[in-house]
UniProtKB/TrEMBL annotation:
<feature type="transmembrane region" description="Helical">
    <location>
        <begin position="97"/>
        <end position="115"/>
    </location>
</feature>
<keyword id="KW-0046">Antibiotic resistance</keyword>
<keyword id="KW-0732">Signal</keyword>
<feature type="transmembrane region" description="Helical">
    <location>
        <begin position="70"/>
        <end position="91"/>
    </location>
</feature>
<feature type="transmembrane region" description="Helical">
    <location>
        <begin position="156"/>
        <end position="176"/>
    </location>
</feature>
<feature type="transmembrane region" description="Helical">
    <location>
        <begin position="127"/>
        <end position="150"/>
    </location>
</feature>
<dbReference type="InterPro" id="IPR020846">
    <property type="entry name" value="MFS_dom"/>
</dbReference>
<dbReference type="InterPro" id="IPR001958">
    <property type="entry name" value="Tet-R_TetA/multi-R_MdtG-like"/>
</dbReference>
<feature type="transmembrane region" description="Helical">
    <location>
        <begin position="188"/>
        <end position="206"/>
    </location>
</feature>
<feature type="transmembrane region" description="Helical">
    <location>
        <begin position="395"/>
        <end position="413"/>
    </location>
</feature>
<feature type="transmembrane region" description="Helical">
    <location>
        <begin position="44"/>
        <end position="63"/>
    </location>
</feature>
<feature type="transmembrane region" description="Helical">
    <location>
        <begin position="352"/>
        <end position="374"/>
    </location>
</feature>
<dbReference type="GO" id="GO:0005886">
    <property type="term" value="C:plasma membrane"/>
</dbReference>
<dbReference type="Pfam" id="PF07690">
    <property type="entry name" value="MFS_1"/>
</dbReference>
<keyword id="KW-0472">Membrane</keyword>
<feature type="signal peptide">
    <location>
        <begin position="1"/>
        <end position="23"/>
    </location>
</feature>
<feature type="domain" description="Major facilitator superfamily (MFS) profile">
    <location>
        <begin position="1"/>
        <end position="469"/>
    </location>
</feature>
């Protein structure tokens, strides 16, 4: 029951990200809005989700993992219901921000619950199931949202999210409560500085494409956010009961495993966000067909996690599987450069399958391996830090990737305005073939760039996961003794 309740919530949270994106056109038409206010339906959610994750993780250790999970689920449901009833875009954006705060509690509390409720092989299976649940939510979100928007309207999308989480809340009573034995007061100053710092940093990057990267506001916000995060690190090094114990960050293997979802963001989440735009704009696919093509990539993300978990439980090395999975993502992105305006769905199946398989393997074992390195007393803090990197990187990378596409298209077209339209999938009008070629050129360069990031990430993470020298020397000495005895 514990696993069922947590997984239901873990399906819903990513579904709220991918599903809301599909509803944006209808939201804009119904509420008579466009541009930045409409885009903040997504940005507000991602911003608060990332900013409050670490706070929610530490709160879970201090106040109770089940309590934090339940409070997060309740806040998420309240925000989703507020979105259903929102009469205008401002209140809708505020409702989405509230849902983001609740999502932080769900992810941090839920991850800590699984880490403390299960041990050994059972923990590996539980986190593999969590990876499949998150993948299913991402993959099913656009399909369910598209159907609901077409039949009942965009408000039904947020109603579905609220309903699913309410069902999960009904089962919270079956989950055992747990918390750290030592429970000092929450570091309120550290929490405020961290939320403000990460929030300003993400805000500056997210607004970059809207304001223009040369706008004074972008470096001002991002610089202020970075300065506050540096201050946060200084405060944590001196705090008696820090929000983030910096010894976690100094554990190179834990830190390496926490960067795995950051690397997959480059090679996977960017494709979820921008490949359908290319297929519809340059490829002439219908939105429904473009979504179907993505199944080549999303289905392996659903199926691979339990298989990867089973391999680990049978003795496969996490230290080898994780870098290998990232190498597959890198190869899949590089291979996808075969795509062009006339590409068929079958011609890009191979690279999408390879990318999805690599992501699915990392989803299945990465989080569980990271949490296995942390003692139960800090499970919430560790889950909060892990998911802060995951969600924060998604918000930043998606914004930067979109800006890079616009800039690359801009090298082949007359103006930035035209480049922005092309990168958004609008290549209609005179010279559409040339615009499609410009979009293809930009996408190919972006794919090579993400492939390089994933390849470098795989090498760095492989090096960080290698056992320390004294452990290797002990293993070699033990092997020598064994051979001498034989």
């Amino acid at each position: 029951m514990t696993l069922t309740v947590v997984l239901l919530a873990f399906v819903t949270v990513p579904m709220s990200i991918s599903g809301a994106a599909v509803a944006l056109p209808d939201i804009g038409e119904d509420l008579h809005t466009a541009g930045a206010p409409l885009q903040w339906v997504m940005n507000a959610y991602n911003l608060t989700f990332a900013s409050f994750m670490l706070v929610a993780g530490s709160a879970a250790d201090l106040w109770g993992r089940r309590r934090t999970f339940a409070a997060g689920a309740a806040v998420f449901a309240a925000g989703s219901l507020a979105a259903v009833a929102a009469p205008g875009i401002v209140l809708l954006d505020l409702a989405r921000a509230l849902s983001g705060i609740g999502s932080a509690g769900v992810f941090a509390g839920g991850g800590a619950i699984l880490a403390t409720a299960f041990e050994g092989a059972a923990r590996t299976r539980a986190f593999a199931a969590m990876g499949s649940a998150a993948g299913f939510g991402l993959a099913a979100g656009p399909t369910l949202s598209g159907w609901l928007v077409g039949t009942l309207g965009w408000r039904a999308t947020f109603g579905l999210h609220a309903g699913l989480v309410v069902v999960a809340l009904a089962g919270v009573g079956f989950i055992a409560e747990s918390r750290a034995e030592r429970r000092p007061r929450l570091d309120a100053t550290g929490a405020a500085v961290f939320v403000a710092g990460l929030g300003l940093l993400v805000l500056g990057v997210v607004q970059g494409p809207e304001w223009g990267w040369s706008s004074p506001g972008v470096p001002a916000l991002s610089g202020a956010g970075a300065a506050l995060l540096v201050l946060f690190a200084v405060l944590q090094s001196r705090a008696a009961a820090p929000l983030l114990d910096l010894s976690l960050v100094r554990n190179r293997r834990f830190l390496a495993l926490c960067t795995v979802p950051v690397v997959t963001t480059f090679g996977f989440v960017t494709l979820l966000s921008y490949l359908p735009t290319y297929l519809v704009g340059a490829g002439g696919f219908s939105p429904q067909r473009a979504g179907t093509v993505l199944l080549w990539m999303t289905v392996p993300v659903l199926l691979a996690p339990p298989l990867a978990g089973a391999l680990v439980n049978r003795g496969a090395s996490t230290r080898l599987l994780i870098p290998s999975s990232l190498a597959m993502v890198a190869a899949g992105n590089a291979w996808l450069t075969v795509i062009g305006p006339s590409s068929s769905a079958l011609s890009i199946a191979g690279p999408l399958l390879l990318t999805g398989l690599g992501v699915g393997v990392s989803f299945g074992i990465g989080d569980g391996a990271a949490m296995s390195l942390v003692e139960p007393e800090r499970a919430g803090m560790a889950a909060g830090f892990l998911n802060t990197l995951r969600i924060g990187s998604e918000a930043i990378v998606i914004a930067v990737y979109g800006a890079v596409l616009v800039s690359l298209v801009g090298t082949r077209v007359d103006s930035r305005e035209v480049a922005a339209k092309v990168a958004a999938g609008d290549i209609s009008g005179k010279g559409s073939d040339a615009l499609a070629a410009a979009f293809t050129h930009a996408l190919h360069l972006a794919l090579y760039g993400t492939a390089a990031v994933c390849a470098v990430g795989a090498l760095v993470i492989a090096a960080a996961l290698a056992p320390p020298r004294h452990e290797r020397e002990a293993d070699e000495a033990g092997e020598a003794v064994l051979l001498g005895g034989q």
